[in-house]
Amino acid sequence: MSAINLPDTLLRGERSERTASRHRRGSLTAGLIVLGGMLVFSVAASLAGGSASHQDLASALAPPGHGGHLFGADALGRDVMSWVGGGIRTSFEVAVCVVALSAAFGCTVGILAGYLGGWLDAALMRIADIQLSIPPLPLFIAASVIIVNNLLSLVILISIVGWVPYARLCRARTLVIRERGYVAAARLAGRRRGAIAVLHLLPGLTTEIAVLASLQAGIALLWEAGLSFLGLGLQPPYVSLGFLMSEGKEVLSQAWWVATFPGIALALLVVGFNLTGDGIRDLFNNDVSGGLR
Amino acid sequence: MLDDALKADAPADIAAARSRWRGVARYVAGRLGQGVLVLFGAVTASFILVHLTGNPATVLAGGQLPPAQVKALSEQLGYNRPLIDQYLSYLGHAVRGDFGNSFRYGTGAVSTVLTALPNTLILIGISLAAAIAISVAVASASVLHQGGWSDRLLRPLMSALQGIPDFWIALILVLILSVKLRWLPSLGFAGPSSLIMPCIALTLPMLASFTRLLRGSLLDFTGSDIALALRARGLTRREIVIHHAMRNAMVTFVSFVALQAGWLVGGTLIVETIFAWPGIGTMLLGAVQSRDLTVIQATVVIIAVAFTLLNLLADLAVIWLDPRIGRERVSKEGG
Fold it and tell me: Which CATH code for domain A26-54+69-292?
């Protein structure tokens, strides 16, 4: 056996394959741990610190650890830790709502386009091309002239751009899956087209949709935080990490903690979602880089 | 025998080259068509945006004017005409690059935006160049030392970097470099040193995604049969990575970089406002705050134009990098 000298590229490939599979489960676990930790922190902070928007001017800009403020206080004496905890919750809300809305719409459109084809397919895909070719953030900023401080309209705004990758993915995969034997069998058995789409096409797409969803969740968070940071997304009474960071920017020279902690929370959330997405993708060895960005 | 084979091959080669160029021409035409479509979409989107509330005059008034004055304003600006009339005239003016005058400055909206554009392009250009150069170096080093400690360190590091919002990096840089150490100025333009912090903030997250993509495609190639064949011919791994894998990886990389530039534009808009950098971001934010609708519309369309041009350039680069492009089309038609 050992007489055959395998070239080291092959061996290297094999070895890296093995470490990669260990790596695979690793990134999914790491991602879920990070996200779970953030949720626990959010709940704990809201239980311990009370209301995020409670103002206490006596302890304005209290440094971390002073006066019961573990992460310090902002210029109005609001507890940074409670605010970060509440902000994480808002971020999760934004992420879940955006993903649900854009996945539902995008998958429907994509499966319809892929399954029915024809002019519908052509038209939908042209619209998708156009949406993908216009950078989203300038559009969001421009749109905030009209849409003021409302979670629902912000979610809809982000989803208007966010459905496109789902539609492209579902269309491409549907084109492949609809040729499979079991779809033909279902058709022969007399299933209607709508039932085939839901019962036979959709299940084949779930892992890829899950990957896309967790990657998109991270991006949606960043968009919300960026807009709120500019003063255009969510402002009080909403509790947003981006808003706290914009406050922190104003007092950066006196109080480093106001901008630092929400930034760390935001980065951890995004990394958590990215790791989870990468983990699911690696686990099933599917490549859906998607046109998310 | 040999001569015959050569003779037989020559016209076939010429024919193949000619048909490739035909394929390429068709490809470019298709891309141009799509670009026009995108611009049409951007113009339409910017129109819808402003008319979403019904009457833009109410947005302009911002709830500070009595209804009678709002009505007068809307008549004066032509917002009381039928929507389709307004759209067609907007489209007609947009094609000629005319978005009306800025409500705030009174100058042409397009020229107002164009004065800010170079400042933004400097930021984008430097960060893009830095991210590309560093990611090429880091990715090839990591592939050459695959499995080594630097490579193992790289993956989690890049995952983490990719998640960090650029505007937060900017804040931390200001905190450390201007507030604590007082090495760099934090606001506006005060010489080349003002470019350092915004560029670092924009480069880092991009660097992460570039490196990850590039490393992936390089590994795809080194694991392929082509790489094995090259290895059998006696090429070293280094030669394969640098001369063969990199060229192949560039095809996906270039299109990816062009798409990422759209992301970069978004990041730039936010980072600019932190440093009060006189670019498009600061301008757009100011326009939004003062409800300067024409400037907002012009900004959206100009960003779309710049982005479309960049993607066209990337397409041309891909044609040059990937000789299969024209041929694929032709062989598909033939088969």
Answer: 1.10.3720.10
